Amino acid sequence: MLLFRRVEGESMTPTYPQGKIVLAWRFSKPKKGDVVIVKHHRLELIKRVDQLEGDKIFLLGDNPDESTDSRHYGWLPLSSVLGVVIGGGRASD
Amino acid sequence: MNLLSKLIKPVYAHCDVPCGIYETDTMRHAADTCLKMIEKIEALPDNSGEKSADHNNFIRMVMTKEKHAQLCKDQIYILWSDFFKPEHLQKFPDLHDTMWQAAKQCGKVKQSISRDEVQKLVDMVSKIASMFEEAHH
Prior knowledge:
The complex is a heterodimer.
Chain A: E1 2-8, E2 21-26, E3 35-40, E4 43-53, E5 56-60, H1 70-73, E6 76-77, E7 81-85
Antiparallel strand pairs in A: 1-2, 2-7, 3-4, 3-7, 4-5, 5-6
Chain B: H1 3-7, E1 10-12, H2 25-43, H3 52-83, H4 86-91, H5 95-111, H6 115-135
């Protein structure tokens, strides 16, 4: 199943700037380096998986100066992941 | 943004507040104000004559020192918790101790009328300001 979302905010710039439409696979298991959509405090967030340990993930924005992410709210449960953004992996990872 | 994209549910790539708005001037100014108050208290004529105007001045200076020591502490806490990030710890391994000791020093400035204690705070705040500058590069 696919999720269609519109990016709001600048924490994923330049990869996913404000207004960009993203597509994500639901029920897909994220890997380190993937961009994911997670549900946190009733909001859906888009961030990159920086670390993955057991059933926890640590998320970072691609634009750390304008990102509120796991550096602030800590590790999130893997179960908070709603989908993995298609084409979001980094070539270097 | 066109109508079609507005219909698509947003996903937040957000920051809780517009961030990057940090500065060290307020912290420096507050520490310098405490130092100024000490200088003024030291310059007061002997209080034994019970001159009420002097007394009034003395109390106002202590209150100003109290207020600015707290302001300085608040600014240190903001930089410590919000501005500095885990990656800065690699650059400044003594970051936590520096911030902690500086916050404690604000308390010592409140508790005493000691030029030495205030001078220590001014020096600590100056060190934090240098770390802040370096973290920006």
